[in-house]
C-alpha cells in the first residue's frame, strides 16, 4: 500500500509517498481501506515534533478518515469486513490503509459520502465538546469565533446556531468572512484590523460577548479575552497562529471571566460514552441537514504534504480532503 511517510521530525516538505507492506490488525484493532482523509492543524504539528503525541518512526500523518473495514482483529466485536466507518485515529490516515482501535469507530451513515465523513469527527467533535461540555453554550449567549473560516471554526458556527446562540465570526479576509456568513454567522469581523475589538463591542451594543472560541492563539487571544462580558467564558482550543499567548490573569479577575482548556482527544479517552453521545447528536443533525462540512478542495496522496503546508500557513478555508486511492 502507498502512504505519506514521516521518518523523523522536521519540515513538512520532508514527507514522501512510499510503498509499504499491507497492515495487520492487533487483537482489538481493525484495518480500514481509506477512501478519504482530512487535513487538520495537528497534522502539521505532529510531523514537526510540536504536538503532544509523538509517534514511533516511521509513521503517516492524518488524524481522521472514512473507509471500509478490510481486516478485523481477533477480539473485535460488533464490526465486520465490509462495514463503512469513520474514525479519529491520531495519525496514520494519509495512507491507503489505516489501523485503528475498534473503540474509535463510528458507522458511516448511508447519507454521508466518505469525503464528508472524513471531515466530520475531529472538527465537529472538538467544537461540540468545546461549546456544550466546556462552554455550556446556550441561546442566551453571544459567541466570538477566532479563525472562523477554518474547519473547527466553521463547525463551531454551525453548532452554535443549532444551540441558539448569536455568532460573531472573526476571520482575516473578505472571502473567509463571506464564507462564515454563508454558513450561518450573524456578524463577521476582520480581526487583523486594529479597531476590531471596538467593532465587536458595537455588534454587541457595548455588552461584550459571553463566550470566546479561540483556536488561533497568538496576539489575538488577549484582545478577544478583553471582549468578554462579566463572567464570560474563554475557550482555549488551539494555537494556529503558532504562538501560545501569555495572558495577564488580572483580565480574568476583573470581570470574573473563566479561562477553560479544551482537549477533545483526552476528553474522548476520559469519557468515551459522552463522546459517543455527542457523535450521535452530530450525525442526527447531519441527517436533518442542519450541519455539513465545508469541503473546499480534494487532493491526492502526493499532494497531501502541500495541503498540510498550506494549512499551517493559514491559507485554507474549510476542509481539504485527501483521496489516498486516487
Shape summary:
globular
The name CATH uses for the topology of the largest domain is: Quinone Oxidoreductase, Chain A, domain 1
Q: Please count the helical segments.
A: 11
When the domains are counted, the total is 2
Supply the CATH superfamily name of the largest domain. Answer: Medium-chain alcohol dehydrogenases, catalytic domain
Oligomer: single chain
Terminal-residue CA separation? 12 Å
GO molecular function: oxidoreductase activity
Organism: Pelistega suis
InterPro entries: ADH-like_C (IPR013149), ADH-like_N (IPR013154), ER (IPR020843), GroES-like_sf (IPR011032), NAD(P)-bd_dom_sf (IPR036291), Zn-ADH-like_protein (IPR051397)
Pfam family, one: ADH_N
List descriptors.
single chain; 326 residues; alpha/beta; Quinone Oxidoreductase, Chain A, domain 1; Rossmann fold; 2 domains; seven-stranded mixed β-sheet; six-stranded parallel β-sheet; 11 helices; 15 strands; 30% helix; globular; ER
Descriptive report:
- The protein is an alpha/beta fold and 326 residues long.
- It has two domains: 150 residues, Medium-chain alcohol dehydrogenases, catalytic domain (Quinone Oxidoreductase, Chain A, domain 1, Alpha-Beta Complex); 141 residues, NAD(P)-binding Rossmann-like Domain (Rossmann fold), CATH 3.40.50.720.
- It is 30% helix and 26% strand.
- The longest helix has 16 residues.
- The chain is globular, with a radius of gyration of 20 Å.
Amino acid at each position: 500500500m502507498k502512504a505519506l511517510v514521516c521518518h523523523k521530525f522536521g519540515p513538512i516538505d520532508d514527507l514522501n509517498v512510499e510503498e509499504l507492506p499491507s497492515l495487520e490488525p492487533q487483537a482489538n484493532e481493525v484495518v480500514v481501506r481509506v477512501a478519504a482523509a482530512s487535513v487538520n492543524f495537528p497534522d502539521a504539528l505532529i510531523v514537526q515534533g510540536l504536538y503532544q503525541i509523538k509517534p514511533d518512526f516511521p509513521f503517516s500523518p492524518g488524524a481522521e478518515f472514512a473507509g471500509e473495514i478490510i481486516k478485523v482483529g481477533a477480539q473485535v466485536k460488533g464490526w465486520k469486513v465490509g462495514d463503512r466507518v469513520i474514525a479519529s485515529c491520531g495519525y496514520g490516515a494519509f495512507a491507503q490503509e489505516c489501523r485503528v482501535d475498534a473503540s474509535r469507530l463510528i458507522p458511516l451513515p448511508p447519507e454521508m459520502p466518505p469525503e464528508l465523513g472524513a471531515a466530520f469527527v475531529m472538527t465537529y467533535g472538538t467544537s461540540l465538546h468545546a461549546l456544550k461540555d466546556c462552554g455550556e453554550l446556550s441561546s442566551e449567549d453571544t459567541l466570538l469565533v477566532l479563525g472562523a473560516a477554518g474547519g473547527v471554526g466553521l463547525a463551531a458556527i454551525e453548532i452554535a446556531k443549532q444551540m441558539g446562540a448569536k455568532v460573531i465570526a472573526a476571520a482575516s479576509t473578505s472571502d473567509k468572512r463571506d464564507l462564515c456568513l454563508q454558513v450561518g454567522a450573524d456578524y463577521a469581523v476582520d480581526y487583523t484590523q486594529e479597531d476590531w475589538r471596538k467593532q465587536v463591542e458595537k455588534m454587541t451594543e457595548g455588552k461584550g460577548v459571553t463566550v470566546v472560541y479561540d483556536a488561533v492563539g497568538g496576539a489575538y487571544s488577549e484582545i478577544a479575552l478583553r471582549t468578554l462580558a462579566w463572567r464570560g467564558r474563554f475557550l482555549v482550543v488551539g494555537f494556529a497562529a503558532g504562538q501560545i499567548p501569555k495572558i495577564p490573569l488580572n483580565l480574568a479577575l476583573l470581570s470574573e471571566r473563566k479561562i477553560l482548556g479544551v482537549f477533545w482527544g483526552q476528553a474522548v479517552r476520559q469519557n468515551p460514552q459522552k463522546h459517543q453521545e455527542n457523535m450521535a447528536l452530530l450525525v442526527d443533525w447531519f441527517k436533518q441537514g442542519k450541519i455539513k462540512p465545508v469541503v473546499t478542495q480534494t487532493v491526492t496522496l502526493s499532494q497531501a504534504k502541500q495541503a498540510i503546508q498550506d494549512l499551517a500557513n493559514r491559507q485554507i478555508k474549510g476542509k481539504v480532503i485527501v483521496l489516498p486511492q486516487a
